[in-house]
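User: Can you help me understand a structure? I only have the sequence.
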Amino acid sequence: MSLNQLIENCRTNDTKAQGELYKLFSSKLFSVCLKYSRNYAEAEDNLQDAFLTIFDKIEQYKGKGSFEGWLKRITINTALQRYRNEKVFDIINENVAEEIEIEIDEDHIPLEYLLKIIQELPDRYRLVFNLYVLDGYSHKEIADMLDINVGTSKSNLARARQILKETIENYKTRQSLQSL
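Assistant: Let's start by predicting it. Here is the structure, written out as C-alpha cells:
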C-alpha cells in the first residue's frame, strides 16, 4: 500500500492502517522523542501521545510538504507541551554570553557519551539546544514554540553550550590522565 493510501485509510480511522503507519514511523519519531524527553519512559509516553494527536489531526495534512516533516513537528510539539504545562521556562534573566564554540574530537569522544550529556542538560537548556542545533529552528521560532522571548532562547543556548563545553573538557582531561 502506498503512503498516500495509508494516509487516506488513517483518515477513516482504519486501525489496521494506523498500525501500519505506526510501524513505519515509530522508530524515527521515537528518536525525536528521546531528544526532547528526560528519559526513556517519558519518551515512550510522548511517542504515544504524539501518535494519538497524529491520528486525531491526520485530516489536517493536505499533502503539501513532507509527511514525515509534518509528523516530526507534531511529535516535537507534543513533547514540548509537557514542558509548557510544567512551566520550566518561568526563569531568570540570564546575561547572553558570546557564542561558545565546542571542540569535539569525534575520534576520542563516543557518540553515546555526547547524546548522554545532552540528555542530562537541564530541561530548558536541552530543549533550546536540540531545537536550535539539532533541528535547525531559529531563536524566533523557538521563542514562539516555547512561549519565551528570543533573549531567553539565546541565553539558554549559550548556557547549554557552556555546560557541554565544560563537560567535554572534563571528559578529555580524564581520558588523557587515564592514558598516562
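Now, to help you interpret it: Residues 98 and 158 are 7 Å apart (CA to CA). DSSP finds eight helices and no strands in the chain. Let me know which part you'd like to focus on.
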